[in-house]
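2024-03-11 09:14:02 INFO queue: dequeued item diguanylate cyclase, len=524
2024-03-11 09:14:02 INFO validating residues
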Amino acid sequence: MPYPNSLRNRFIITLSVMLVLVMGILVFILHQLMIPNLISEERQSAHVYANALQKSIDHNASTLSDMTWQWASWVSTREFMAGRLPDFPATHITSAVFADHDADMMLITNSNDGVVRVAGRNPVTGEFTSCARPEGPCLWTLEQVRQIQRQLPVTDTTPRIGVSPEFALLSTWPIARQNSPLLSGKLTLVRFLPGQWQPNPADHTSTLTLSAVRQGTDTDADSTAVDIDSTSDDNLRLTLSRDSATPGYLVVMSTRMDRESLRDGIKRFNLTMLGAMGLLLALMMLMLWVFRTIVLRPIAELSRYAMALRQAPGEHLESPPSWLQARGDELGVMAREFQTLIKELNDRNAHLKALTNRDALTGLGNRRLLDRQLPRILSLTHRLERPVALIMIDVDHFKLYNDFYGHPEGDQCLKTIAETLSDIFQRESDLVARIGGEEFVIVLPDFDLDRAMDIARGVCTAMEAQCLPHERSPTHKYVTISAGVAISSPEHPLPGEVLIKQADEALYQVKKGSRNAVGCARPG
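2024-03-11 09:14:37 INFO prediction written
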């Protein structure tokens, strides 16, 4: 039968609570430890990526600076500035040189910041032009020349990015006079930068979006900054800020970094959680099966056994299952204790049953045993076509015996009579019972009237031969008995009550006429 609060249900609830608790701990670990750690690693990777971009930008600037320094250091450049090499522009400032050095524009100024030469590739037409002034075919350089001239008084040779009229990487180096510490002018190289710039052409994923913002008064003009912003679950936005060549402006370069590592880390952890959940569920089912096999099944068997004992009180109790008694654990000990207890109960029940069917004083059967066994004896014997004799015995003048000798002696007298009857009637089929104070009944299967009368007379003789003194008896100086015999034959079967009544009437007639004698009931 099901139990609302069974150990199985409690065990399942306990395992479920443990499963929820473990999953809660895993979720806590994910959100409080794993994700912050993954984000920290992601930001470290972003800083490494930003540093790589910075190095690419610095490499571009360094390359342009080296090339500018070489141009400014050439002897031919100094001679040109001194007016001794008029064909310098035609021989040295050519389209091929610009292509080889990946430069887009060159500006040479004198010591008074006046334009001496301007050349470059028109970003609109792609045509190479070289002029003494930013006019005519070189008119396209005018605005760029103006922006560069604003920076010419600055002696810093650090390459910078200009933001106007367009984004461009600028590098300026002084041109020294021959054999003199004085400057004869400056040479500036320009590399135009697209709005979507790839500082490292080998890495097509590293694309920077350039923009310009006004610089605050509290901003360090020499500083560079990296800002990492998690704009979405898919990308990180990296923003690199640099001082520009244009006064009052910062160059802001931004790019996006895929958050694949974070997604993969969370995905792996989720898969680990699912695997852990599946493993825990499988472990819970295994533990439930083991718990059911090792604990619940034996306990259920003992419970059913206990209920069977309760529902069948007073009957012979079967032992617990042998497989349960053979266990070496606590349940096996419990089953063996049950076995010992049941054995003791069976012994006690048998003893109690014997006590309920036996006379406490004489040890013979009592009236309860006679009432239960007589119908069975009659039925079985008549089925074999044989008669049943019943002898009822009464001790003569037993009240006088008790009054004179006392009740202890009277009890001893009854015991002696019981022992005498037990010695005479030893067949398993015979039944001897004490049904009253001094009344006894003997049931003899397969005895007809004549044999029953003879055996009754023999009992009277045997009792008289015991020579128990009875000084107050008017019949004899020794204790004597009287007997009444009744017969139930297959031809005229009698119920047990009728048979007893006929024997009692026969005994009454004997006691009425005389004592120490045998009488019989007339067959019906």
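2024-03-11 09:14:37 INFO annotate: Residues 322-356 form one domain.
2024-03-11 09:14:38 INFO item closed
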